[in-house]
């Protein structure tokens, strides 16, 4: 009789264990399926693989979480001390079989996750046919993106002698030249290879919708690959603390619906470069708005919708250069702005540190800024006055540059 009752009890225990095991699996699956609903949209083919891996990890982690929390709740209820019971607990020395099991199971789980994660990592870094290379640069506190333009695609009616020297050289040598944008543009189905570098400190290039993140390391170039599958605009952020403006280091990736729409944008950008305006002020505005230089990350300039706070406010810079700064340095306003671009540490504004990169007039040097770009930027900044009129004598700037100052 007792044997039958004991057998029944054992059967019930087994059923409870099986039920608990199934509940853990179902709970883990529910957690795995529900949590990604809070994620950004899946914008790339790689995001599907990454999310599947994450769901697999969530299912395992969720089941373990429910197991541990369930065991705690069960133990609190089942083994709590009865009122008035002041005796010591049972002297338990351990269970070798149990310890072997709970050591072996995590080891197997880690091995499976390692193999699965490695497969996803290899797949997302695989070279894809017909991939487009885009160069991304991080700088305090702005992103910029460059695209190579074959010289053969330059229209025949372009006046080559009016183009910047690097484009003239590209046309002469039948090579390519870059165009720069503050936004990353591509189109659905186009594989992208991002070649990333930094002009200053560490940054991390992160596109949440694409499930892609890659560190930018000083002195090195790093790469990521992805293929957009959804049209739209998605945020690009810096995921590495890089200074006081880190939180504002944001950009966008614009995924066009098709190649025709993308090429329309691309052609407009090329035309801006190969048909530069004759007016140096307009040319300077174009250069600064392109994101070719990281000025927008630190400075405020309402005319260009800049809102940086870690560098001096450039609203009214023409007036200040002609009055306060000119009086302090003994330089003309055009000389002051021109030299402050190439020697920023010598022109620190009170209250601001030496964060600005030192631009170089010589090709091949870090932070290269051609003299023509410098002149155009100076011409534009000189018009940032209360009246909108230039505070500078640009003919004097030509003399300063010719003298090598």
Q: Could you explain the architecture of this structure?
A:
The chain has 405 residues and is α+β, with helices and mostly antiparallel strands. The protein has 3 domains: 92 residues, no CATH class; 143 residues, Immunoglobulin-like, CATH 2.60.40; 123 residues, Cytochrome c-like domain (Cytochrome Bc1 Complex, Chain D, domain 2, Orthogonal Bundle). The protein is 43% helix and 17% strand. The protein contains 11 helices and 12 strands. The protein has a 5-stranded mixed beta sheet with strand order 3-2-1-5-8. Strand 11 and strand 12 form a beta hairpin. Helix 1 runs antiparallel to helix 2 and helix 6 crosses helix 10. The longest helix is centred in the first third of the chain and has 34 residues. The protein is elongated and about 105 Å long. 26% of the residues are buried.
Topology, element by element:
Blueprint: H1 2-34, H2 45-78, H3 96-124, E1 132-139, E2 142-150, H4 165-173, E3 176-181, E4 184-187, E5 192-198, E6 203-207, E7 212-216, E8 222-226, E9 232-238, E10 250-256, H5 259-274, H6 280-289, E11 300-301, E12 306-307, H7 317-322, H8 324-329, H9 333-342, H10 371-381, H11 394-402
Parallel strand pairs: 1-5, 4-10
Antiparallel strand pairs: 1-2, 2-3, 5-8, 6-7, 6-9, 9-10, 11-12
Total number of strands: 12
Please mark out the parts with pLDDT under 50 across 5 or more consecutive residues, or reply none: none
CATH class of the largest domain: Mainly Beta
Rg calculated over all Cα atoms: 31 Å
Task: List the main descriptive attributes of the protein structure presented here.
Cytochrome Bc1 Complex, Chain D, domain 2; five-stranded mixed beta sheet; 11 helices; 405 residues; alpha+beta
């Amino acid at each position: 009789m007792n044997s039958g009752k004991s057998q029944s009890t054992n059967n019930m225990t087994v059923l409870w264990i099986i039920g608990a095991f199934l509940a853990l699996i179902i709970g883990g699956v529910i957690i795995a399926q529900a949590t990604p609903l809070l994620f950004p949209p899946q914008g790339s083919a790689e995001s599907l693989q990454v999310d599947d891996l994450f769901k697999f990890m969530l299912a395992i982690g969720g089941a373990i979480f429910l197991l541990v929390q369930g065991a705690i709740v069960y133990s609190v209820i089942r083994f709590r001390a009865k009122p008035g019971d002041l005796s010591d607990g049972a002297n338990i020395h351990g269970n070798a079989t149990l310890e072997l099991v709970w050591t072996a199971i995590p080891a197997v789980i880690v091995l499976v996750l390692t193999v699965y994660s490695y497969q996803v990592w290899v797949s997302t870094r695989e070279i894809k046919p017909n991939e487009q290379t885009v160069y991304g640069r991080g700088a305090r506190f702005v992103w910029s993106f460059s695209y190579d333009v074959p010289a053969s695609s330059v229209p025949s009616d372009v006046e080559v002698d009016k183009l910047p020297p690097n484009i003239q050289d590209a046309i002469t040598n039948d090579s390519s030249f870059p165009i720069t944008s503050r936004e990353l543009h591509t189109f659905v189905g186009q594989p992208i290879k991002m070649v990333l570098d930094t002009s200053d400190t560490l940054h991390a290039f992160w596109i949440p919708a694409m499930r892609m993140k890659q560190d930018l390391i000083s002195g090195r170039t790093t790469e990521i690959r992805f293929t957009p599958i959804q049209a739209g605009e998605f945020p690009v952020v810096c995921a590495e603390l890089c200074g006081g403006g880190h939180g504002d280091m944001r950009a966008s990736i614009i995924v066009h619906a098709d190649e025709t729409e993308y090429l329309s944008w691309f052609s407009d950008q090329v035309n801006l470069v190969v048909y530069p305006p004759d007016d140096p002020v307009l040319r300077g505005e174009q250069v600064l708005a392109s994101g070719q230089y990281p000025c927008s990350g630190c400075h405020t300039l309402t005319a260009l919708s800049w809102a940086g706070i870690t560098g001096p406010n450039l609203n009214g810079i023409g007036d200040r250069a002609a009055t306060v700064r000119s009086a302090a340095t003994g330089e003309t306003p055009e000389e002051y702005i021109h030299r402050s671009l190439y020697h920023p540490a010598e022109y620190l504004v009170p209250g601001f540190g030496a964060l600005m990169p030192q631009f170089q007039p010589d090709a091949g040097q870090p932070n290269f800024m051609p003299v023509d770009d410098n002149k155009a930027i100076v011409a534009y900044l000189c018009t940032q006055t209360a009246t909108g009129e230039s505070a500078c004598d640009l003919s004097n700037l030509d003399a300063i540059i010719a003298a090598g100052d």
